[in-house]
Amino acid sequence: MAVRRAPIRLVTFDALYTVIVPRHPIHVQYSQVFEPYIGVLDPASLKESFRIAFRSMEREHPVYDKGSLAWWSQVIRRTALGAGADEKALDASLHQIVPRLLDRFSSREGYRAFDDAISVAQSLRELNIQTAVVSNADSRIRSVLRDLNFPSSLNPIILSEEEGVEKPSPEIYRRALSAVNSELNQDNPITPDQCLHVGDELEADYDGARAAGMKAILLRRVGPDSEQAHKKTPKLRDDVTVVEDLHAVAKWVANYNIAT
User: Fold this and answer.
1) Coil, strand or helix: which one is 113?
2) Residue 154 Cα distances to 124, 138, 187, angstroms
């Protein structure tokens, strides 16, 4: 007799490039904020210097180990210098540039929701499936999601800065599940095999969730708003489940649960 598989009861989402995306390319928004203080910087140089600054800070100071303000201040400074900014002018105005950029990327001014994100989150809750966010981000993601009118049922929001651990560690996924279960009937807790994580990064999202005993789907959006348009991504393996939008995720969950 075939063993009946457990239905999906929790879907967790990555944030950036999964449910939200910069309203304009990051280097364009940085350029707009930089210009009144340090002049116009070459867009191509700015784009590359941001990528280098961000990745180097991730390696040198994982999980915002010096606090998100200091962490982002260094990213912003390194980005400007890498794009050719005058160091003296930059340092004289950094105390104005940093809060302006942090505020911008705390709200709808800096981000927008993908067209499918809110509707899919709502449709999953209508199917009595819990939803949550697991993101390698700082606490500003909370205000971003709130300002973009994501449903309050997209909860909890588990962030690496607050947890002191980041994807792909299985621990951050376990904490998300624990937080969800703490709000549910303790007689019927959700188990890892009843969870699905959706994100756009192979190692952090797909492999991390799988290591925690969860199911995973890799989101590979197409077009200029995709993660692949902004980062160098590894080649996909044959064992990875891939979709191009969140409607496909909702369909996958519905079909999976019908078959259970």
Assistant:
1) strand
2) 10, 17, 23
DSSP-assigned states of every residue in 81-92: HHTT--HHHHHH
Contact 227, 17 (CB under 8 A): yes
Angle at 205 between CA 22 and CA 230, to 5 degrees: 35
- Show Cβ contacts of residue 8 under 8 Å, excluding neighbours closer than 6 positions: 129, 194, 195, 196, 215, 253, 256, 257
Residue 33 contacts residue 46 (beta carbons within 8 Å) = no
Whether 158 and 172 have beta carbons less than 8 Å apart is answered as yes
Q: Please state the length of the chain.
A: 260
- The CA R_g of the chain, rounded to the nearest whole Å, is 19
CA 173 to CA 165: how far, in whole Å? 10
For the chain, which residues score pLDDT lower than 70? 1-3, 226-234
> Which phi and psi (to 5°) does residue 79 adopt?
-60, -50
Give the tokens for residue 55: 């990745």
Instruction: Tell me which residue has tokens 């105005």.
Output: 93
Please give the Cα distance from 160 to 167 (Å, whole number): 8
The predicted-structure confidence for 95-143, as pLDDT tens digits, reads as follows 999 999 999 999 999 999 999 999 999 999 999 999 999 999 999 999 9
The Cα–Cα gap between 137 and 139 comes to 7
Cβ atoms < 10 Å from Cβ of 155: 16
